[in-house]
């Protein structure tokens, strides 16, 4: 009897052992340990691809709010406050220094043969209208744009907080509205001048001769536009296009599914290109006014001196004369 | 003076959005603008967490750095505030902000933005404390009344903490030690360059 009870006891103990052994892992799983599965900020930030952000679901209609943390904001800040001012400073102050040096050594480029007193029409009314619409809006856009980048260090101390903010506010309005005539101007320039700006072999010779800029009396032949002017044309055409596309994204922020990352990208493109654009246009304005005798007339009155045309656009002048020879004087079509 | 901060204990947040609503109500925040929001990470998946986020009042704030008109300033309590009189609505602060805090009312032409609006840590703006002018532009100034931000004060699970950064970090650490887990002080690394060591 005793042995029978002992046997049952032993059996029960063995069963108990099995149960306990089986129950052990189950008990471990039931212990509250939400950390095992829960998202942790540190893991998310570590796993984050460059340029990506930590986002989730949001119950308010503004979908941008679904982004919880976008660390690239800090990168954008570094670029905007660190790299961009350097690019702008070097480009703009650099070109001013170069132009000053050029003026000091070469001086104003004179018409070697002297002014003839006879003029020839270089740009008709429409050409000049398109040029000045683009140029005048460009100046306002450039000044108001530079003010956004450098204003708080350069202009703000002069005017004080309130006046500077008012000024910059108007600058932003001007920048927004005048961007449209600028875009139209660039498009029209492309339409009316592209055909005369296609590069050809003549341009290589012109470039080899340094455009005659650095040697007195040297005047490589050129058609309506020389290689330098063609360069300016294509910089304005392509630069204007990229400025317009990037600017459009800033005029209509977040339209068409644009994200913060996209916005940051377009601001950077817009700002860097603007700095280079302004530097190039400073050089263009220099050679078109102070830097060369007779050059301003082309865009001023539209009538350039014949000797100026002979020296800088010899082949174009010949063409014009041939045309004028075939037709009665005064009926030459405006360019 | 204390260095005030927000800390959202995501393991406690139940995504009730009461902080969002209380904030809108307290400050009469204009339609379409939410100074605070609740974002749910890994929604519907095991281990999802909700985080209530607003302006973190960063140390060396990126918004202030990129502002072209210097409209931001930091109070003695390290609250980052801005002047709506100076703001031109350029949007740069939104690009630089790691937390998407700046908001703009849509006014006028194109996508043109009005004066930026963001969480003030219930501390008003540059106008004299507790004036009508201050209330209209920035909402209530609870800090001037000796109160903490409304969002944290009324949080039903006390997930959202506001106050002296050192103290709320201590409270959070204690919670984590007691319960044995914590998903981190969301945003602290990004805003203050140091998280809460757990």
How are the elements arranged and paired?
The complex is a heterodimer of chains A (335) and B (198).
Chain A: H1 2-30, H2 41-47, E1 54-55, E2 67-69, H3 72-106, E3 119-121, H4 125-154, H5 156-159, H6 161-193, H7 201-208, H8 227-251, H9 260-287, H10 296-299, E4 303-305, H11 306-312, H12 314-326
Antiparallel strand pairs in A: 1-2, 3-4
Helix pairs in contact in A: 3-9, 4-6, 6-8, 8-9, 11-12
Chain B: E1 4-8, H1 18-27, E2 37-41, E3 49-53, H2 62-66, E4 72-74, E5 80-82, H3 92-96, H4 132-138, H5 150-153, E6 160-164, H6 165-179, H7 188-192
Antiparallel strand pairs in B: 1-6, 2-3, 4-5
Question: Can you describe what's shown?
Answer:
The complex is a heterodimer of chains A (335) and B (198). In chain A, helix 4 (125-154) runs antiparallel to helix 6 (161-193). Chain A has a two-stranded antiparallel ribbon with strand order 1-2. Chain A has a two-stranded antiparallel sheet with strand order 3-4. Chain A has a single domain, classed as Fumarate Reductase Cytochrome B subunit (Up-down Bundle), CATH 1.20.950. The radius of gyration of chain A is 35 Å and the shape is elongated. Helices cover 67% and strands 3% of the residues of chain A. The N and C termini of chain A lie far apart (128 Å). Chain A has 12 helices and 4 strands. With 335 residues, chain A is mostly helical. Chain B has one domain (4-192): 2-Layer Sandwich (Alpha-Beta Plaits). Chain B is α+β, with helices and mostly antiparallel strands and 198 residues long. In chain B, the strands form 3 sheets. In chain B, strands 1-6 form a two-stranded antiparallel ribbon. Chain B has a two-stranded antiparallel sheet with strand order 2-3. Chain B is globular and about 50 Å long. Helix content of chain B is 26%, strand content 13%. Chains A and B meet through helix 2, strand 1, strand 2, helix 3 and helix 4 of A and strand 2, strand 3, helix 2 and helix 3 of B.
